[in-house]
UniProtKB/TrEMBL annotation:
<dbReference type="GO" id="GO:0000225">
    <property type="term" value="F:N-acetylglucosaminylphosphatidylinositol deacetylase activity"/>
</dbReference>
<dbReference type="InterPro" id="IPR003737">
    <property type="entry name" value="GlcNAc_PI_deacetylase-related"/>
</dbReference>
<feature type="signal peptide">
    <location>
        <begin position="1"/>
        <end position="24"/>
    </location>
</feature>
<dbReference type="InterPro" id="IPR024078">
    <property type="entry name" value="LmbE-like_dom_sf"/>
</dbReference>
<protein>
    <recommendedName>
        <fullName>N-acetylglucosaminylphosphatidylinositol deacetylase</fullName>
        <ecNumber>3.5.1.89</ecNumber>
    </recommendedName>
</protein>
<dbReference type="GO" id="GO:0016020">
    <property type="term" value="C:membrane"/>
</dbReference>
<comment type="similarity">
    <text>Belongs to the PIGL family.</text>
</comment>
<dbReference type="Pfam" id="PF02585">
    <property type="entry name" value="PIG-L"/>
</dbReference>
<keyword id="KW-0732">Signal</keyword>
<dbReference type="GO" id="GO:0005783">
    <property type="term" value="C:endoplasmic reticulum"/>
</dbReference>
<dbReference type="GO" id="GO:0006506">
    <property type="term" value="P:GPI anchor biosynthetic process"/>
</dbReference>
Amino acid sequence: MAWLLVISSLLALWLASLFKILYGSCSPSKDASFSNGVTLNKRNVMLVVAHPDDESMFFSPTISYLTSRGCNLHILCLSIGDADGKGNLRKEELYQACAVLKVPLQQVKFLDHPDLQDGFGKVWNHDLLAKIVGEEVISHDIDLIITFDSYGVSGHCNHRDVHHGIR
């Protein structure tokens, strides 16, 4: 089962890299923009993930792209990932990843909400997620939110709940 996760992670990274090669520039462009006209330069962007390690497994190419373009990137991690009792270790690993990915640590926020605990059997309330994310958007004047697709990238129920809560 672990090999499937590794293969799917590598595939996601490969696809993200391919997309950058085909549609991106090799040199950072300070006026890079999305097709809808949202310019990235100095925008407030928030990445919303369910657990520590999601940023590295699914979004590291995106984080690198955004930080290289001068975006003001915030990361909101909705749990400490304590399903196996390693939440504090996982938090520290996310901080270390953010240091490598050039995300200021003061722009990384964890929640340890009793209704948002890590686990395959844990269903997260979409209204609660919408409220929490909405408060963060207002607090940091966020222009763009990035998160999971409707499948949750890997199919994890917490990832899917984050998607639906933000929608």
